[in-house]
Design a protein that fits this description.
The protein is 35% helix and 17% strand. It has 460 residues and is α/β, with parallel strands linked by helices. The chain has an eight-stranded mixed beta sheet with strand order 3-4-2-1-7-8-12-13, with helices on both faces. It has a six-stranded parallel beta sheet with strand order 16-15-14-17-18-19, sandwiched between helices. The radius of gyration is 23 Å and the shape is globular.
Amino acid sequence: MKVAFISSEVVPFAKTGGLADVAGSLPLALEKLGIEVKIIMPKYKTVKVKADKTIIGRNVEVLFVENEKYFGRDKLYGDRFGDYPDNIERFSYFSKACLELLKKINFKANIIHCNDWQSSLIPVYLKTIYKNDIFFAGVKSILTIHNLSYQGMFDKSQFTKTGLGWDLFTVRGLEFFDRVNILKGGILFSDAVTTVSPTYAKEIQTKELGCGLEGILEQRANDLYGILNGIDYNIWNPKKDKNIAKKYDANSIKDKCVNKEDLQKISGLKVDKNIPLIGMISRLADQKGFDLVAAIIGDLLKTKVQFIVLGTGDNKYHILLEKIARLYPAKSSINLKFDAMLAQKIYAGADIFLMPSRFEPCGLGQLICLRYGTVPVARLTGGLQDTIQEFDANTKSGNGFTFSDYSSAGLLSAIKRALALYRDRAAWQKLATRTMGYDFSWESSAKEYADLYDKFAGNK
């Protein structure tokens, strides 16, 4: 089985979100299953590899599409003024370049696995511009939607930049309320569509979370699959993590308090292992539930807790969090930036990890915090619903604290339940230890992808 894995961002070369983590780790898990994978991504300014390719894992080749005009910029998709106005040009070029590169290196993939709108033109091109190209005869395309709210929409005046004919600018093509919708094209033309959790696959077929594409996704329901993301336990492992103050595992979870004290110290918080420390690592956006956090944070910080947040995003939340920092300097640590090392210290040092998302296709934060014995408080949506179960004091089952309704009252109630258990230190430590036993590595999810590849490549 040969798979070309196409992504607009890949760890460790370029990252804005979870897509990069998936693109840098799933192919390695697929390689272990005997699948030959080649990754193709743009050669951004952030890519420090001088050659046009490199190797990750044992032998997964990463090929870079070079174009200084399109990719030699400080950011991947836009700057502080918004998205780059020529993004349709940039990623139309990238999509065609990927197909031409596969021909150039004579890599006849069974499956071309595309990700998000940035490579969604590939399935379209395969069934239009390249439909008579013998090199791609029998090649199937799979599109993974990592977040349906990012669709690659442009003014119809830019449609010609895709290289497609106007006959495809229709309701049954890439037209969407008189605009171009690149992701829609990928959904319609790919052989299969996947998304990053079973619950999200159902949610995106509803009006509430379908982002206007629910009808099309319903039409493709028989070819729509929800496969839960995993994480790379070689990277996210407190037993091996060189960036935390003291390594630990489920058998030495008492050493987690050393990391808490270290986090309190570097964050300017009072060093006290008995004060519950609540952490958040997130894009500062409505999607992530920051409007709920904004509604309760003042009252929460009047109690005996500490709060640390790391992330950047919407200006209104920057302003809010800066205000919190001024009002509660002894109880809050507000870090409006990207800092990979601090993130790992938060996962290791916090007691509670907040993910009150309005929607969450999969979520990686909860998978990481569980691995580090940090108890999640999460809203039951998307991948959070698939991975977090409410703690039951009677049966001692569950791995976190949850709420269903999107409300500040629901969030506050879940936090209060967590804080109540925290006061029983023995019970809390048992819960934290148990969370570390959950397995959300890529192994099982990679097998699901392998089965899907086999199905559409005609091997099953």
